[in-house]
Amino acid sequence: MLRRERVTPVENSDQSLNRRERSLPPLPFRNTFRENSSIRILFKCVLSNTILDVLSRRTGWEVATGEEWNFHWATREWMSTSFDRYKFTSRQFVNHFRNDFELTRKDNLIKNFKKMKRTLEKNKSKEFAKYSFMPASYVLPSEYHIFVEEFKKYPDNTIWIMKPVAGAQGRGIFLFRRLKHIQEWKKKDVTGCDAQPYVVQAYISRPYLIGGKKFDARIYVLVTSFRPLTAWVHREGFARFSHSRYTTDCVEDAFVHLTNVAIAKTAPDYDPEKGLKWSLNRLIRFYESSFSKQRVQEMISDLANLIVNSLKCVESLIIQDSHCFELYGYDVLFDEDLKPWLLEVNASPSLTASSQDDYRLKYRVLSHMLDIIDLEGKREGNEIHVGGFDQLINKGVIVERTRGPDPHNCFIPSVNLRLGEYHESKIK
């Protein structure tokens, strides 16, 4: 069971590490592996939120004061400017792949998704049917004329959503029904520069609602290799709710249509401890109370398909380096039919806690991530479960487990994805 001590998220600051170590809260969970006091691992970390707490509390890990280091938690910008041509030593690991933007920039994700679909369709592959987890999408301004032609084929009341290709936290997103509503975007700005790159997508206008509110789910996916493809999914995550009840009567209201915490925080009655987040465990239990377990399992299988095939879209494009890994934040929306839709993939999911429970969750995810990276050399190497992570893909092969028995006493194989099933006291 989780410890009951009150855990306070550590705020960003410039205080010294020694002072920070004295102020760290008790560990919010038990260690997955046995401690080894002889281990000495040097780390660098550019952030001062939950990840720094995890690194500072890990047995045998110390801050690197010189050029020598074993583990580097860097920003995406640092990866591009300092590590683009850096030759890592055998005992160095960094938290980004060099060109992860092939997956995490909205325009590149759409381009690579479309390219994969075209290839599968041309080859008449049965896999083509699996690539239906993104709505109709276009990259502007390069595909503006194609979008206009497609726009005319949709009903007049169709809602579309515009997103900056490299935006975050809901900034710059807006919805529209008429082409005239994006004419201002098309115009060049006062400096003569072209319109800012955006993606436009058919809006999922029939989302599954809870309490009348729209929500999406954040799922943590850890990729340790793209060739061969190896990925893990954490059992914990969370659902983020919109601030206001859902309606399509007003497409201008961000509190209705967007679930970003950064947007909700601007509401005058925002309370981080109430109402706008559910744990993934609570969400899955809610679905199981509303639908059959078989239907929920089908939804989870569809979600596994979404994760696997989105990674396959960029498997051959990402620069493979055994010294790189990446923790992605997948944002997924479920519609009224429980179909999962991929909204975006985040290369740097927020590690700053918005509440007590949020801090505990992120602490566990990050600590279990380090258990998989295993700089201490404690793993045997054949595990398919580590902490709250389950291995979804192992060297290009989807990992399955048996579930059941069914009424005929036959054990049924299913994909190794156990969302919402994390329990600290007992991990199978």
TrEMBL record:
InterPro entries: ATP-grasp, TTL/TTLL_fam. One of its GO terms (molecular function) is tubulin binding. The keyword Nucleotide-binding applies. GO terms for biological process: microtubule cytoskeleton organization; reproductive behavior. SUPFAM superfamilies: Glutathione synthetase ATP-binding domain-like. GO terms for cellular component: ciliary basal body. Belongs to the tubulin--tyrosine ligase family. Residues 1-23 are annotated as: Disordered. This is Tubulin--tyrosine ligase-like protein 9. Keywords: ATP-binding, Ligase, Nucleotide-binding. The keyword ATP-binding applies. The gene is WBGene00111818.
